[in-house]
Every structure is written in structure tokens, then in C-alpha cells.
# Entry
Amino acid sequence: MFRSMLAKSASPVKQGLLHRGFASESVPDRKVVILGAAGGIGQPLSLLMKLNPLVSSLSLYDIANTPGVAADVGHINTRSQVAGFMGDDNLGKALEGADLVIIPAGVPRKPGMTRDDLFNINAGIVKNLSIAIAKYCPQALVNMISNPVNSTVPIAAEIFKKAGTYDEKKLFGVTTLDVVRARTFYAGKANVNVAEVNVPVVGGHAGITILPLFSQASPQANLSDDLIRALTKRTQDGGTEVVEAKAGKGSATLSMAYAGALFADACLKGLNGVPDVVECSFVQSTITDLPFFASKVRLGKNGVEEVLDLGPLSDFEKEGLEALKAELKSSIDKGIKFANQ
# Structure
């Protein structure tokens, strides 16, 4: 039914979810928790995860307004049972037994704000949520959406280390929106079917740390160097483009929810033993001299099964890789320092 519903719809989101191949056969029970479920990303993400038949239990948490979101989403006639939890006292109940925790909690970017401007607020939120995850569901996979991801992932890692629960295979920074944007922008210029496009995006998840590898895009198109540079910059500035277009009324919430749902689906497929699930993600890594780096990752029953090499890079991409390292290292160090204050 889920597949036929998607197939009848022209909605790009639903077609995208169909393209990613949500399963409809009998699958294991999986509990997914969304922390920040009543927010701008959290609400559409809750909807999309309710549509995913791999989810048997959907737990929605926020500091306010969660009962309404849970009641609304809970009326949808799909597999998962929905429960809403509100306030610090109920955070543990929301997390217990989780297989996957998705964290879009925090404040959004506003015009004129950099991702660093978000840091002090969102870093504190992520720190507190990570302490609770370590206590109540230390075995869960964690998908970090809260910005700045380049810092919030290292914060969570440090908190988990302090609690003695850290498993590098189970912590992911969600960079999928960079991949989604790169696919969309590339398809438009290459005049190819966007549903068939794949573009690895490596590095980090802010500004110049975002490095789309258009030389590895498929299907290949003979685009000029100038066009590749323009596509790279547009991918790097995609978040700012949306913030400015919304004119102070929000940031990239809908596309981020879509990207978050795609990556969560990939994680669930990996947990369920589906072979050859590969997505880009910001994870602990040794493929560069930085402790965390986004690249293609093979997902499996333990989370990260393998961090894949970058592969061959064009001269332009090699320059971009070197140019991003200092900024990415600074953001990582900032997160580590915050967690250890």
C-alpha cells in the first residue's frame, strides 16, 4: 500500500522516498526517537518517519507542544505506534529502548546568522540530550541534525566518552541535505533525471567545509570548470539561500526533514541487514588527518561498517579539500572544548 500510495503521487518528497526504496515486507520492530519533534524540522520529520514502514514505534520528544504533534501524526494509518513526551522529566521515557535517535533540536538560523552564532545555544542543548542518551539508550544509533554539525557531533562523542558508552560506529552527523542539494543542482545543469543522480559530498556541513565531488557524479556529464565551481558554491551556500528566501521566517526545515528521513531510512536498513547501504555522513574517521570527516559510509547492523576512501579527486576538489581543513578542525576543536568545560 505504501508503495502504491507513493507511486500515485507526483510529490517530489514521496517520489524521493519511493526511489530510496522503503520496504513493505515483514521487518523487525524498530523504535525511532525524534528529539525536537515539535520544531520546524521536527514536525515534517515526524510525519516522514511515520510514513516509513521500517518504524514500529515512533517516540516524539520536545520541551513543549509535543502532545499535539503526536496526536496529529498518530492518526495516520501506518505501522508505527506514536507516543509524545514533553519536558525534561519525560526525556528518559522517550528514549528507553530506542534503536535510532534523531536530533533536530535547537534554534534555527536567521538572516545574518552564521552557524557559529548558533553554537552556544545549540551546543548546550546537544550536550544535555547526549547525557540522557548515554543514560537511557546507550546502544542506539544517533543521527545528529542540530547545527553546527561540525561541532555538535564532537560534543556528543565527548559526552559519550565521559559516560563510558561511546561507540564511534553509532554516531552520525547528518550531511544528507548537502547530497540532496548537490543532486538537484547537478541534475538541473546536466539535464539528466534527478532520480538517477548521485553525487558524493565530503568534508563537513557548513560553508567551504562542504565539498561536493562532482567529478564522481553519476551519470557523468561534460560540465565546464566554471559551472562546476558555481554548482559547488551553490551547494555550499544552499542553507543561506533558503534563509534569505524565507526573509527571516525560518531556515531549511522541509528539505532538511526530507534529507533526515532518507538518512534515517538508510540507518534502519543497515540495522536490518540490508546489504550495500552506502550514504555520506560526518563520522569519526581516519581517511584524513582530522578526527571527524564526512565521506561515503557503508551502513550495517552495528552502524558504520566501513568508512570509504575519498576516491580520485579533480584538481579543483583537491584544492577544496586542503582549503576546508583548517575551518573544519577549528569547529571540531570548538565542540570538544565545549564538551569538556
Observations:
- The CA atoms of residues 50 and 274 lie 20 Å apart.
- Confidence is low (pLDDT under 50) at residues 1-21.
- Residues 31-174 form a domain with the Rossmann fold fold (CATH 3.40.50.720).
